[in-house]
Amino acid sequence: MRTIKKITRTAGIAATALMLAWPLLANAADAPAKTPLTLDQAIQLVRKNNPALKAAAEEITAADARITQSRSAYFPQISASAGYTWLDTVSKIDLGSGVMQFMPNDNYDAKVTAKATLLDFGKRGTTVNLARSGKKTAEQSLELARRELSFQTVQLFYGILFLQENLRVEEKEIAALNKALDYTTKRYQSGAATRFDVLSTEVRIATARNKTLDIEHELRRSQLTLRRLTGITENAPLSLQGSFALTAKALANSGLVAQALEQRLELQLSRENEAAAKLHRSLAMKQGLPVVTGSISWGVTNGYQPDIDEMRNNVAAGLHLEIPLFNGFRTSAERQESTALMQAATQRRIDTEQQVKTDVEETVHALQTASDKITTTEVQVQQAELAARHVRARYENGMATALDLLDTEAALSQAELARLQAAYAYVMNSYTLKRATGEVFW
């Protein structure tokens, strides 16, 4: 009995502990993961959740439906019809012994008709090709939108990392200035410094804090934009995992330009638009050609002798030739318009090719410049750190003025910021070069 009571007591304690811990376990299960977000993960979220990409995907579906619509011209068009017509007066003849009526007053007609285009000199084929070109354009537009949004995500991702590092540099400067303020205040109280020295230091701190507020605002704005693109909710944590560490490599402009001319979607899209313009012109040139159609119908109707009221089967078949002779100069105007649009598409394609070449050359130069700046700014930071250590020691020993200390701390902050900007520029130009050459980087 004592053993049973002990077991019962233990079970009760365990149940009570579980009831008390259950809300904490539930909250832990419902809490969003705090795993840092990588660049690849951010891009995948954009490709999955962005409404603009979903809209572009629906346009491909619509373009595919337009291909089916254009192909319908190859099939016969079948329709059914029924009607009633009352006629008066109708043809009659008086035979003396009675009146013979040649057509009824009540006319009934029901039939099924099939019509088909037999010859149109390639108009249907050109229309189908135009629809296919439209689908290719929609597919390329979707992929281009994906790449542009991915690049925008890269900009936001590294922009946030840059602002966070910039904020760290400003906070480091504020910490150094606060330390300098403590020394200056003590020296002022001992009579070794003036009130102006204290106020100068306080002004420098206030200026640095204002910069911090501006950086925090820009950081908040960038984070909101990234959340919108990726679909991350406001209550979910946003912690990014990345760095500005990239290895510099030699670049050959000629190979990169050739790669860009082959892979850039903007150029592929301009070529597809040029091909579509040529198809439009081909279709316009065929507008003045004849069209041969055929039709066949089967149905029931009355009005046949000897019993004009009896419903009887009938079949009709025919060929129809239509030759456009004059339509108010519309055909010639359409040909002129399509020719001009084709030439315009060609010029846009040439302009796109030139822009692609320029993008590659400019980005390669910018990347090399950023690489050189990384080297020079690293030297500047080392010199500024050494100078700051010397001036701090001299100031503590009364051998340097407060202005010397403030200027040195500002110079160190500027050097660190310049190094950070150079690293940020190098990373962004690396991705810009990938974008300029049409390389997929996600």
Pick out its properties.
9 helices; 6 strands; alpha+beta; two-stranded antiparallel ribbon; 2 domains; Outer membrane efflux proteins (OEP); 442 residues; four-stranded antiparallel β-sheet; disordered N terminus
Question: How would you describe this protein?
Answer:
The protein is of the alpha+beta class. It has 2 domains: 37-75 and 120-289 and 324-436, Outer membrane efflux proteins (OEP) (Up-down Bundle), CATH 1.20.1600; 79-119 and 290-322. The chain is 68% helix and 12% strand. It is built from 9 helices and 6 strands. The chain has helices at residues 2-30, 39-49, 51-71, 123-190, 195-230, 253-263, 265-285, 330-396, 402-436; strands at residues 77-86, 92-94, 99-101, 106-119, 291-301, 312-322. The strands form 2 sheets. The protein has a 4-stranded antiparallel sheet with strand order 1-4-5-6, with no helix packed on it.
Summarize the structure.
With 442 residues, the chain is of the alpha+beta class. The protein has helices at residues 2-30, 39-49, 51-71, 123-190, 195-230, 253-263, 265-285, 330-396, 402-436; strands at 77-86, 92-94, 99-101, 106-119, 291-301, 312-322. The chain has a four-stranded antiparallel sheet with strand order 1-4-5-6, with no helix packed on it. A two-stranded antiparallel ribbon has the order 2-3.
